[in-house]
Design goal:
Blueprint: H1 2-20, H2 23-33, H3 36-49, H4 54-60, H5 64-72, H6 78-93, H7 98-113, E1 117-119, E2 130-132, H8 143-162, H9 175-182, H10 184-200, H11 205-220, H12 225-240, H13 245-269, H14 283-290, H15 299-306, H16 311-325, H17 330-335, H18 342-364, H19 381-388, H20 393-424
Transmembrane segments: 31-49, 69-90, 102-119, 139-160, 181-201, 221-250, 288-312, 332-351, 358-379, 391-414
Protein name: Permease IIC component
Keywords: Cell membrane, Membrane, Sugar transport, Transmembrane, Transmembrane helix, Transport
């Protein structure tokens, strides 16, 4: 075991840490996560617009179209916001002007992704002649295009600045004015570059990336049990090595997660039943059904610690209970620890695989609906599952069933670990 741990420390951890702290990976993660408040707010309006009580639903019916607008301008154009966030984060890492680079990235994204639609004649009572942008092109389905345009536009700006291919203003000019003139030549190049690709070469970056990467989405984030379990295994496996599993996986899974929950929310808002949405293995599926108390379903372990004969484990359980109820489990992961601890690391990995399998079959059998809303991860799991599945009581019950399964899986390993602690004490 010592040799295996030494191998992980020497070979695996440096690579994983290097990937997790790579400049562009961090920019993607920060930029996409920056849209979190918008998707959460949009989810609340989706929930308000689809209440579980029929009398409430009837009362809200006349306002359904109006209440749908906040969703369309949050989740509905998610990729537009993500583009600005990704570019700003990358620019900040280079010590470049964040505002300028964010704006230029949005320009690149719109030019390359949102081709204007030209309506030549009025359609009476429907639409007037003019040019329009289809906001569906700005949704999470274009998230990979937002990543590419966001990163590439910053690199173009940086190249021009490092090569001094800019317009320099005299000293004494306010920084905001100076930065604007510095951006003139890069802005012109970015505009022409992405315009040429989209309209002269007729190459759609978003469509191309979707064609290339969608098969990967089907593996890691979709309706494949194998893919879902693989994602769970990777996240929990990294955690046992002392690395934030979700953070390491974020550059790969985060765009797919955002696209999947946005698609589910959009379908539900358009009238599709929550039992017939597109994606099962969304981030919210993991969050509410599997990560009860945090990654690895550690709330069960915290409860076992609270009744331990070991003074240390009992105190740790009491300390970790309140954070655990709100799905924060760093106290138990690093306090027990679970990191580099095979005794607790095994159930930490196995328990979510078992509850994930059960939850998957409960979903495909129609017992519980799919996820159609996004709530903060600190919402207690039963309430999160209840709200995110269109007020499904079976979904809430499934959380408690999974918690009991977690207890059963953790228990024998807990007893072994407790015995070791008692011997030390």
């Amino acid at each position: 075991m010592d040799n295996f741990v030494n191998f992980l420390n020497a070979k695996i951890l440096p690579v994983a840490n290097k990937i997790g702290t790579q400049r562009h990976m961090m920019a993607i993660r920060k930029g996409v996560i920056s849209t979190l408040p918008l998707t959460i707010v949009g989810s609340f309006f989706t929930l308000i617009n689809n209440p579980p009580i029929q009398s409430w639903a009837n009362a809200m019916a006349p306002y359904k179209e109006i209440l749908d607008i906040p969703f369309r301008y949050t989740v509905g154009i998610l990729a537009l916001y993500a583009t600005f966030g990704i570019a700003s984060a990358l620019a900040d890492s280079y010590k470049l002007d964040k505002l300028t680079n964010g704006i230029l990235a949005v320009l690149a994204f719109l030019v390359s992704t949102a081709a204007p639609i030209h309506i030549t004649e009025d359609v009476k009572g429907v639409i007037s002649a003019g040019r329009y942008i289809d906001i569906s092109n700005l949704s999470a389905s274009s998230l990979f295009a937002s990543i590419v345009t966001g990163l590439l536009s910053v690199e173009i700006y940086r190249f021009f600045k490092e090569k001094n291919i800019t317009i320099k203003m005299p000293q004494g000019v306010p920084p905001e004015v100076s930065n604007s003139f510095v951006a003139l030549i890069p802005a012109a190049f970015i505009l022409i570059f992405f315009w040429f690709i989209r309209y002269i070469l007729n190459f759609n970056i978003s469509s191309f990336l979707s064609m290339i990467l969608m098969p990967l989405k089907g593996v890691l984030v979709g309706n494949s049990l194998f893919g879902g379990l693989l994602t769970i295994l990777l996240i929990t496996g990294f955690w046992t090595l002392g690395i934030h599993g979700a953070a390491i996986m974020a550059p790969i899974t985060r765009p797919f997660w955002e696209m999947s929950i946005a698609q589910n929310m959009g379908e539900f808002a358009s009238g599709t039943s929550a039992n017939h949405l597109s994606t099962i293995f969304t981030e919210q599926f993991l969050q509410w059904f599997l990560w009860i108390g945090g990654a690895g379903g550690t709330l069960a372990l915290v409860v076992l610690f609270m009744f331990s004969k070991s003074a240390y484990l009992k105190d740790l359980g009491k300390l970790a209970l309140l954070p655990g109820l709100f799905n924060i489990n760093e106290p138990v992961i690093f306090g027990a620890p679970i990191v580099m601890n095979p005794i607790l690391g095994i159930p930490f990995i196995v328990a979510p695989l078992v509850t994930g399998t059960l939850s998957y079959f409960m979903t495909i059998w129609g017992v519980v609906p799919m996820m159609m809303a996004r709530l903060p991860f600190t919402v207690p799991s039963p309430l999160g599952a209840f709200s995110s599945t269109n007020w499904s009581i079976p979904a809430m019950i499934l959380v408690f069933v999974n918690f009991l399964i977690d207890l059963a899986i953790y228990y024998p390993f807990f007893k072994i670990f407790e015995k070791q602690q008692l011997e030390k004490e």
